[in-house]
Design brief:
23% strand, six-stranded parallel β-sheet, 435 residues, 35% helix, 12 helices
């Protein structure tokens, strides 16, 4: 069969889809990762159910595929799986009967069996034994080190969807990393729901630092990048590993969500304002030149204008290198759901806009400070006679890019080049090949 997999949501979903594709390809199926792919027998939509906007996108994508099925000349099967299905399977099945099958986040084996594939699959850890094809460009790949989450953040439905935290063994992860590098991967992006929890279930201790040490010394990856960390009880040895190894990018992705201590307590984040400030100071003192990405939530139930302005002042003083901001989305089954949705939607959007305007100015100033400097960059793609690349301080798809006018041939995606920055904007840099 020709099977098209459409993946929505986070990078953890991306790995799940790639693992499923590996099992299907092992049975002789042709698998695509192309939303526009029309010539296929089966479409699998791997959905996101995290917040309201993501749920809406997932439903709209399913409806798009239903429309193609109903008006197409070729009979097509639609399978919908993932986080949204885990939460709302019965309701979805009633509302969209044109979908042929619905599967939750722990039913990958059932999907494979329904398509006459027979994978060796571990339900909780979402990993097939079959090599996974990459839906990302071939020079970078996500390395998922655990499944599920043991945190109890009041606004988050992920533990309800994915279950408790389960770490993959270090030896297995190192072997997977080596296999990815052997296929041409230059950048490993370490992910899970909470990478700082890694190892507590398997080794009865936080083992992220040890994992990073082994990936740095054994995988052969030129770049290793850490995502989805958690501020409470951040492991010191992971900080040391980032600082010590030249092939670990000086980059930390750490969603802080807020700075006001009352809201952080209500969010059940396990850290207050002072602890957050101390952690940021520790990062910058022990990892010189570190780039810090964070995400914040505005409009949390009961957030006052004064508390929002405290958050604005925090962003001004913290001067994050990269930042995202989301409006609070009430999610059934979470602790915060009972607090109501007290901040009007238009006010939430005003706060998002105000906070992001502050960050855009900071980003512009930081980018302008890079003019004249030379950075080692990885080339992601070629567009309109320009190389599109990134520094080690920027992650793919979410952070800034470097636009380079191509002055010589032979450079391909995945190549490293030295680039002199000649101009800067809020969200991009302009450079020229150095040397």
């Amino acid at each position: 069969m020709k099977i098209n997999i459409i993946t929505l949501g986070c990078s953890k979903n991306t790995v799940d889809s790639e693992n499923l594709a590996g099992a299907l390809k092992a049975q002789g199926h042709k698998v695509y990762f192309d939303r526009q792919q029309a010539d296929c027998d089966t479409v699998i939509v791997n959905t996101c159910g995290f917040i309201g906007d993501a749920k809406e996108e997932s439903i709209n994508t399913v409806l798009e595929q239903v429309a193609v099925k109903l008006h197409g000349r070729k009979k097509r099967r639609i399978i919908v799986c993932g986080c949204l299905v885990e939460r709302y399977k019965d309701d979805l099945a009633k509302e969209i009967p044109e979908v042929d099958a619905w599967y939750g986040v722990h039913e990958w084996n059932e999907i494979a069996q329904s398509l006459k594939a027979t994978p060796d699959f571990n339900f909780q850890l979402s990993t097939f034994s079959s090599p996974r094809p990459l839906s990302t460009p071939g020079h970078y790949a996500y390395l998922k080190i655990a499944e599920g989450c043991n945190r109890s953040c009041s606004y988050c439905a992920i533990p309800l969807i994915r279950g408790t935290h389960h770490s993959l063994p270090i030896d297995d992860l190192v072997a997977e990393a080596k296999a990815l590098v052997s296929k041409g991967v230059k950048e490993l992006l370490v992910i899970s729901q909470d990478t700082t929890w890694y190892g507590l279930d398997l080794y009865h201790r936080r083992a992220l630092g040890e994992l990073l040490d082994r990936l740095a010394t054994e995988s052969g990856a030129p770049w290793i990048r850490l995502h989805y960390t958690y501020p409470s009880s951040f492991p010191d040895d992971a900080i040391d590993a980032i600082a010590r190894h030249p092939n670990i990018c000086k980059y930390i992705d750490i969603p802080l969500q807020h700075i006001n201590s009352r809201i952080l307590s209500s969010m059940q984040r396990g850290i207050d304002r002072e602890g957050t400030l101390q952690l940021l100071e520790k990062f910058r003192a022990r990892i010189p030149g570190v780039s810090i990405r964070t995400t914040l939530i505005v409009g949390y139930p009961g957030e006052t204008e004064s508390e929002f302005q405290e958050l604005c002042d925090f962003v001004r003083s913290a001067r994050f290198d990269r930042m995202g901001c989301f409006a609070y989305s009430p999610e059934e089954g979470t602790a915060a759901y009972s607090l109501g949705d007290t901040v009007p939607d238009d006010e939430k959007q005003r706060r998002v806009s105000e906070l992001m305007a502050i960050q855009e100015q900071i980003s512009l100033e930081k980018n302008q400070a890079r003019i004249g400097r030379i950075f080692r960059c990885i080339v992601d793609r070629i567009e309109d006679q320009h190389l599109v690349a990134r520094t080690e301080y920027d992650s793919p798809e979410v952070d800034d890019e470097v636009l380079i006018r191509q002055t010589k041939g032979g450079i391909r995606p995945g190549d490293f080049v030295d680039v002199r920055i000649v101009d800067a904007m809020e969200n991009d840099l302009v450079g020229e090949l150095a040397g």
